[in-house]
Amino acid sequence: MSRQFVLRFSFCLFLLIFGLSSSFGQEKINQADYPENIDFWSDYPNDVLAEILIQRMTNEELLAQILMFGWSGAEPTPLLNAWVEDRALGSVKVFGWNTDDIHLVAKSITNLQKSSHKNRFQIPLFVATDQEGGWIRHVKGDTTITPGNMAIGAGGFPVDSWYTAYYISKEIKCLGINMNFAPTVDLFTNFDSTIIGTRSFGSDPEKSGILGAAFAAGSEAAGVIPTVKHFPGHGDTELDSHGKLPVIDIDFETFTTRELVPFNYLIQHGVPALMTGHLSFPQIDSTGAPASLSKYFLTQLLRNQLGYNGLIITDDMMMVGATSYAGSLSEAFKMAIEAGNDIILSSTTAKLNEALWTKNLDRMSSDQAFYERVKDAARRVIKAKLDYFKSGNAAPLYPDPTTIDSFVPDKEGQQFFLEQACRSITIEKKGNIPYTKDNSGRILLVGSLESFFKDGKKRYPESGEFRFSYETGPNETQWVIDNLPGVAKNYDTIILCVSSENHVKIANIFKNSGKKVIILNTRSPILAESLSWADCVLIGYSWRCEYSLNAMLGVINGEFEAEGIKPF
Q1: Which residues are catalytically annotated?
Q2: Which CATH number is 425-556's, of 3.40.50.2300, 3.40.50.1700, 3.40.190.10, 3.40.50.10140?
Q3: Is the pTM of this model over 0.85?
Q4: Which long-range contacts (CB under 8 A, 24 or more apart) does 170-173 make?
Q5: pLDDT tens per residue across span 509-530
């Protein structure tokens, strides 16, 4: 029986057990049949209620409902509060700079939701974040640092993807966060990528789709809306769309048989939300427009051809990948709406009289087609909110900060993530595993992360230590290269953590040194390929993850056999 067959069979089993669904419809209603005091919490079918609310909303209320703003600092600003209280803003986004104190995050969300409840229709906020697992972890505090997508891909089990999302979602749900911008199903096809890398499940389109759909199902089971990204695929570029507009110059056949496959897989399994990327595919859309601003990509392809009915959400519109093409932020917002996005995201809270608001509000009065597009987007948002908040499994509107420590970190999740990390560890070069006191002599631990030294000392209590920064700059790198050999001369075996090109330079000082060298590759797996001279090389795929480091040390100590397979 093939590994691919097992992968697909197990995923289908999980879909049968846990389910993943989405629906959208539009009902014809007669306003005279319904009382004047209807609000979001009135007891009517969701399709009907969504249409009643939409027909009764002002242009200002419709436009505000499709906007999502972030805020600066630990607590929401007076400006953001004004958008929620005075404009009935539809959604907010929690970024990494907001989350050092997760108790304050919960308090802030409570206050924002209470403000939204004061508006005449009492429509609650979508509260989103990026908690992908692994490298991207916007909600900090005591939330779990997990192995991440590529570790899941190396293990290859949909159940691991499902439970990863489930435990991540449980942690953020207790804070009142109800939407997660994950899973990332961009493919690992450009090995020089610094923006996707280990955020990807791997290079196999179908496998990424299966693991992504399992992740989405786990998120929904925990009560958080998953958002697949970055449509139509951010993997084949070195550029970060935060700073430039990436151009992915592939032909239509490659595009449809590679990039689109995982997204289509999730669409077929009813993923409720999708994020668009600021990515140009000139051979697909000859205008060169970013997919996030392209009517071809979002309306013709995504809606009409692929049959997607869920929410379409932009990546951050403050990113250069969007504004550089549009020429201005207000024009970028206009193009994003016209292209087919339902929620327009900005990491910065707009001023109340900013052009992105005033110009597009004026356009709603003068351009009937634009008005209908905003109305359609708002309808989708409100219907999605009704489906979610009345499901019985939604995140609390008013989270209790005093209970957070009971849920974060998730105790069951901690055990699971260690087990999942063990399933992911991949041997690039086996050497003479296990390495013990008998065959290793004196051992020197070289690295940066405290968990590496803690768990290394448990296995090798008499080992020495040499520490440097996780992100070593050129000066520190050279200092380490100059000073480490003098320390290492008294040891027989070097166990060295590598997470960057500078760390590779440090490792290379032991090439032809006559010492045994064991490499723990903790980040991009591509780094391991340049270290084949070492005696033993393991890949853990993960960013600062104590579970992955513990698992790699367990492998070299002979505690279990590594069975992970490089997912590319």
Answers
A1: 242, 315
A2: 3.40.50.1700
A3: yes
A4: 170/222, 170/407, 170/410, 170/413, 171/131, 171/139, 171/143, 171/144, 171/407, 171/408, 171/409, 171/410, 171/413, 172/129, 172/131, 172/139, 172/143, 172/224, 172/395, 173/222, 173/223, 173/224, 173/395, 173/396
A5: 999 999 999 999 998 999 999 9
